[in-house]
Amino acid sequence: MMYWIVFAFFTTAETLTDIVLSWFPFYFELKIAFVIWLLSPYTKGSSVLYRKFVHPTLSNKEKEIDEYITQARDKSYETMMRVGKRGLNLAANAAVTAAAKGQGVLSEKLRSFSMQDLTLIRDEDTVHMRGHEPQLHPSGGSLLETIEDSGTEHPSWATV
């Protein structure tokens, strides 16, 4: 664990030093040698750096670090609650708007049908229930005339 903490600091420092010192002769070779020194179990470079620099600094700043963590946790909770409420409000508004628009489209679609179109749809559904295909006449006959023209007797429920 000590290695990874020291390596994280090295990576952060490396980002800045690459820009400034990359022109220096043998810079990249020195970086490789430093990483090998950190990793080597014989030199225990990461353990040395951690115990001399990182651990004392973290111990001195422990209370401040804990306060920052507490503040970050509180702010993140408040932010998530605010974002969550805003998201739920947006979703509810979108659902209500979609429902209102959908109802308006449906009513406009139904208004576009004429009464004759609606009676033909009803007549076709009734005939399909009995298993017969409707025979529509240009004269605009009713369901009763369609059944009588097919040569079958109409049941008692079809009489007017």
TrEMBL record:
One of its GO terms (biological process) is endoplasmic reticulum tubular network organization. It holds the Pfam family TB2_DP1_HVA22. One of its GO terms (cellular component) is cytoplasmic microtubule. It is a multi-pass membrane protein. GO terms for molecular function: microtubule binding; taste receptor binding. It is found in: Membrane. It comes from the Eukaryota. Residues 132-160 are annotated as: Disordered. InterPro entries: TB2_DP1_HVA22. Belongs to the DP1 family. PANTHER family: HVA22-LIKE PROTEINS, RECEPTOR EXPRESSION-ENHANCING PROTEIN 2. This is Receptor expression-enhancing protein. It comes from Strix occidentalis caurina (northern spotted owl).
